[in-house]
Amino acid sequence: MKIFKSGNKKGIALVYIAILIVMLIGFLGLAIDIGYMYSVKGQLQNAADAAALAGAAKINPADLTFNQYSARSAAVSFAAKNTAARESVAVASTPPTNTLSDAFVSGGNDITFGNWNFKNYSAGRTPINAIQVRTRRSVPGADAANQGQVATFLGRIFALLGVGPGVPFMSPGAEAVAFRKPLGLPGITICIDTCALSNTNLYFQDPPGIPDVQKVAWTSFRCEQAPNIGKNGDVVDLIWGRKKVSSLCDLCITTNNGPGEAFKELEVAFADRNYEKDSKTFDPVTGAVTSWTVAVPVVDRRCADGYNPNTCLGVACDPPGVPPNPCTNACPPSAQGKNERYHVQRVATMVITGTLRTPDDKRGFSISTLFCVECPTGLPLGKGVALVR
Question: How many H helices and E strands in the chain?
Fold first, then answer.
C-alpha cells in the first residue's frame, strides 16, 4: 500500500494565518474604535455636565411654560465651548418643546425642564428646579440625519470580511441632569402673622413678655407629637441637611419650642463658613458669616383666614377617633393641643442675620427680611447647583 504525502501543508497554513491576521485586525480595529467612541462620549459628557450646570443656574421656577429662555441660552452657550472628536458640540433648543427629539439642530430639541425630588427626575413635573441636556457633535456640511456621527478608523474592515457593510460610523451622545439646590430647611416654623415682620428678633421657648408673633418653633415636617430636638433627632438632621424634604405645602406638622440640642446646632451651622455657603454672606474683612438665607414653613389654623382645620386631620396625621380640634390661632406655632396638627399654608424665605442668647436665657435669632408665598408653591431655590446624573 502506498502512502501519499501532501506537499502543500505549508501553503494551507499560510492561508489560515492570513485569515487569522485579517480577523485579528478586524477585532483590533473594533476595539480601537470602541475605545475611541468612549473617549468621544467622555468629551460629550463633559460638555453635557457643563451645559446642564450652566442651565440649572438660570432656571426660573416661575416660568411654567418651559420656555426658560435664559436657562436654554446658557446651556447652549456652554455646550458650544466644548469639542468632541475635533468638532464642536451642539445642543438643539426649541422652546417651549419639553421632550428630547430625534431631529437634530433644525427643529430638534435636546433640552427638557422638570423636577428633581431627591429621588428621580421627571421632565414636565412641577415645580421646576432641574434641567436635562443632551449633547452631540455638530458636523459642518452634514445633513440632519448624519449630524453627531463619528467616523471609525477600522470599522469598515468587516465589509472586507463579508460581514455586512461594516461599521463606518458611530453616533455617541451624552445626557446630564442638574438642579438648582433649594434653600436649607433648618426645621424652623413660623405662623402667618410673622410674615409681616422684618429686622426683628424671633424666639424659641415661648418667653414671657415677647409678642406671640415673634415666637417660633421647631418641626421635623412629620405628624408625630413633639419633634425630636436632641443631638441625634430629626430636627438636627434637617439643620445639617442630612434629611431632605422635597415639598412643604399641605403638610400636617407638629412643633416643639424647646431649645434642646437643636439650638446649639443652629448656632454652629450659622457660623460655619463652608456649610450652605451659597446661601450665606460674609464680612469682607473677617470672613465671618453675616447672613444665612433659609426656607421655613408657615402655619395657620384660623377660620377667619378661610382655612378648614378638618382638612388637616386625616388618617395620615391623627389616630382614628380623635375629634377635630376647634379653630385656633397658630401664633405662637407651639400652641398646639394634644393630637393637633398644623397645616402648612405658605412657604417663607427668611434671612437670618445671627443667633442670640439673652442674659435672661432667651434663645432665638435675628432676621432682616421675610418673604412669604401662598401654597401651592415649591421650595425657594438657592444659588447652588448640582449634577444628579
Answer: 5, 17
